Amino acid sequence: MDEYQPVAALLPLLDWVLEWYLRGVRRELVRLLATRGTRAALDVGCGTGALSRLLADAGITTVCMDPSRTMLSMAERRAGVPPRFCVLAGSAERIPFGREFNAVIFSLVLHELDAEQRELAWREAHRVLRPGGVVVVVEFTRPERGGGAAWLGGALLRFVERQAGRIHPPHYTGYRHLMAGGGFAAWLRAHDARVLEERRYFWGNIGLFAVAARPD
Ligand SMILES: C[S@@+](CC[C@H](N)C(=O)[O-])C[C@H]1O[C@@H](n2cnc3c(N)ncnc32)[C@H](O)[C@@H]1O
C-alpha cells in the first residue's frame, strides 16, 4: 500500500514544511558528502526528491529510491528533463544494487519502519557500500541535554508523528519503538556503529549521523 496516496494533495505543503525545517540539516549533509569526495549516493526513502536534487546539484551521481509512487511522481518532476538524478521504485529492505555507492542516505526514513525492517535496511545499506563509504542518517533521537526547549521540540515532533500515525498506524508504532529505546543515537550504540560525525538539530531532537561502512 502507498501510505502517502491518501495525502497526495497535501504533499506540496509537506514538502515545503520539510524544506523549511530540514534546510540546515540538508545543507550540512551535502557539505559532508562533498567534503568526502562522494561520487555516487543512494537516497533511500527519498520522498519528493528534495535532498536528491541538492546532491545532484553538488555533482554527486544520485539515485532517489522510494516505495511510494505518490512521492516518486513529485521526485520525477523535481529531477527535471533530462533527469538530473535517477528515480526508482524500491524499498530499504531489498536494495536492487550491488556494492556501488560511496554513500547511502536515510533521511527521516528509519523511524517509519518496524524493528525487523530497520535491521534489514541497515544490513542492505552496508551491503551496497563501497569500501570507505558512509551511511548518513537523519533521524529522531533523544536530546543529550534536558531543558524546556529540548522538551518542547520533542513534544512537537511527537505530535506530528502521532498525526502521521492516524493515516498510517505502523508509522507511529515504528517511531514510538525507536524513541522508547532512546532514539537513533542509542540504536547506533546498540549496533556498535562507528560514528564518524554527528550533529544535532531541533534542540537535540534530530540527529545527523555519518556512520562508517562495516568492514567485511
Ligand atoms: C518523512 S518521509 C522523508 C522523505 C525524504 N527522505 C526527506 O527527507 O524529505 C519518509 C519516506 O520514507 C519512505 N519509506 C517508507 N517506508 C520505506 C521503506 N520500507 N523503504 C524505503 N523508503 C520507505 C516513505 O515513502 C517516505 O517517502
Question: Could you please describe the fold and organization of this structure?
Answer:
The model has no long low-confidence stretch (mean pLDDT 95). The longest helix has 20 residues. The protein has 216 residues and is of the alpha/beta class. The protein contains eight helices and seven strands. The N and C termini lie far apart (35 Å). The protein is globular and about 45 Å long. It has a seven-stranded mixed beta sheet with strand order 3-2-1-4-5-7-6, sandwiched between helices. Helix 6 packs antiparallel against helix 7. The protein has a single domain, classed as 3-Layer(aba) Sandwich (Rossmann fold), CATH 3.40.50.150. The site of S-adenosylmethionine has 21 residues, from helix 3.
Summarize this structure as a short list of keywords or feature phrases.
single chain; 216 residues; alpha/beta; Rossmann fold; 7-stranded mixed sheet; 8 helices; 22% strand; binds S-adenosylmethionine
In helices, the fraction of residues equals 40-55%
Strands of the largest sheet, in order across it?
Answer: 3-2-1-4-5-7-6
Backbone CA Rg:
16 Å
Mean pLDDT: 95
Which class do the helix and strand fractions yield? alpha/beta
CATH homology superfamily name: Vaccinia Virus protein VP39
Q: Total number of β-strand segments?
A: 7
Total domain units: 1
- Count the helices. How many? 8
CATH class: Alpha Beta
Identify the CATH architecture.
Answer: 3-Layer(aba) Sandwich
Topology-level CATH name: Rossmann fold
Unique ligands: S-adenosylmethionine
**Poorly predicted runs:** none
**Secondary-structure element sequence?**
HHEHEHEEHEHHHEE
Taken from the alpha-carbon principal axes, the silhouette is: globular
Strand content: 15-25%
For the record, give the distance between the C-alpha atoms at the N and C termini, rounded to a whole number. 35 Å
What summary fits the major beta sheet?
A: 7 strands, mixed
